[in-house]
Design goal:
about 45% helix; Undecaprenyl pyrophosphate synthetase; alpha/beta; six-stranded parallel beta sheet; about 240 residues
Length: about 240
């Protein structure tokens, strides 16, 4: 079975998971951290080399203050408790997004986690926090323009926030919604899209395998015809 090199996930459904159980929304986010831990391990076991997750969008600041504060507290807790075991498992952690709006404590935690795990090679985990696809394209264009370069696709590819990894092969969204919500707009131009009805806290190894099987059955043409793709596969 063809395994994608890079999987991106919109981890949707934490709040609904909590509401179904008459719990506060932050309880769903806590369970979402458990699901992420499980997913990182499962992806690494299956040979996926890059996992990029949408943890907090630039639009999520508009949520109720109580929920935002709970998410920030959860992030700090995760930075203190999750990084070391991931490091010991060979996970490289990168935080992707605009860091200007998060606290100095959080920025320091990001930097410490990235430095500690910098040379790990089992799997790269990109955590998109205060991230938006439009912001990413705009900041990349600004960087290119600041150097006096012509804004081209190649130039932008070198400046987007995920320039350290290849583009996602597969984009998964959980929670039964059918949109990508300003996530990796530039990078997902040719990603295969898969939508799962499962809420993120319930997204387990079996659900991941179902998504991977669906991906393996797709024909990725990148503008070519089916016949061209088939001929390349036969020649290989």
């Amino acid at each position: 079975m063809t395994i994608p090199h890079h999987v991106a996930i919109v981890m949707d459904g934490n709040g609904r998971w909590a509401r179904q159980r008459y719990l506060p929304r932050v309880a769903g986010h806590r369970q979402g951290v458990e699901a992420l831990r499980r997913c990182v391990r499962a992806c690494a076991d299956r040979g996926i080399k890059v996992l990029t997750v949408f943890a907090f969008s630039s639009e999520n600041w508009n949520r109720p203050q109580e929920e935002v504060s709970g998410l920030m507290d959860l992030l700090i807790t995760a930075l203190s408790g999750e990084v070391k075991p991931m490091h010991e498992s060979g996970v490289r952690i990168c935080f992707v997004g605009d860091r200007s709006r998060v606290s100095e404590k959080v920025r320091a935690g990001f930097a410490k986690a990235e430095q500690l795990t910098l040379t790990n090679q089992k799997i790269t985990l990109n955590v998109c926090f205060n991230y938006g696809g439009r912001w990413d394209i705009a900041q990349a264009a600004q960087r290119v323009a600041a150097r006096g370069q012509v804004i081209t696709e190649d130039a932008l590819n070198q400046e987007v926030a995920t320039a350290h990894v290849s583009d996602p092969d597969l984009l998964i969204r959980t929670g039964g919604e059918f949109r990508i919500s300003n996530f990796l707009l530039w990078q997902c131009a040719y990603s295969e899209l898969y939508f799962s009805e499962k809420l993120w806290p319930d997204f387990d190894e079996a659900a991941l395998d179902t998504a991977l099987l669906a991906f393996a059955q797709r024909e990725r043409r990148f503008g070519k015809t089916s016949e061209q793709v088939s001929n390349v596969a036969v020649a290989a």
